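Service request form, structural biology core

Requester: graduate student, group of Dr. S.
Request type: structure prediction, single chain
Budget code: on file
Notes: please return the result as structure tokens.

Sequence provided:
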Amino acid sequence: MAYLNSNIPPIYCKIRKEYLYDLKEHMGESEDCVIFAITSISGRAILFNIMLPNGACYWRLPISAFFQKSYDRADVPDMQTHELELWNSFSYWPSVTCFDWLDGVAGKYLGLDKKFYHGKYLFTIDWAHPDVNILDTEHSEIPQEHKCAHILELSNGNYAAQPNNRILWHINSYTTDNSWPDFKVQTTYWDAEDNNMVTEDSDKMFYEMQEKEKSVSDLLMDGYKEEQKMYEKEEKDKRTYEKYKEYAHDLSFENDSNKND
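Core staff response, request fulfilled:
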């Protein structure tokens, strides 16, 4: 996992020239370039690093600065960064992966304007926290907050960076369900070792796993919990009366029953 900067598969494309002049000059013009790396700064958009035909490198540009090389500038809609990228970088430690399963796969993402934007997969940026000795103030490893960013080459000529919960992929032989997912956000921290099993106390290579014996305090706690359950059940089974008349009527009924006995 890289810190701050990371290589990406090179993208030969064009840059909206005004981004090379702090959005103050050369509006509507374009220039060839190659995107070859990203910069990940917490709380900022994913930033892209490029080389230009004159040999100059220009650092830390947003995804909205670029469009595909096969398009003319006039044919590509100018879209703002937040329209193309939903979330900022989640930490200073990015991971870049081109997943074989998704390589070149077509998909569509749901934009903030409630419209679908179609494109093809290029690679994925994900984030994590690298060292327990560094204070983690970010959200990259909180299940319900984590997002990755799939980089897409859009059919309108732009590029986009979208998370899983905004994209539907299309694979001819597999994605036959046309419904919009209604999944819930994951909040569970999955842990295979969060149980009461321990290895046997031996030097065997193929050791057994066995249930850990409960301590006296564990047994006392189990007994306390069982007693609490019984008490709560008794309280639940008790009859309650909102009015005195209800109590009197019930008591009268019980007295009548006792006479018959």
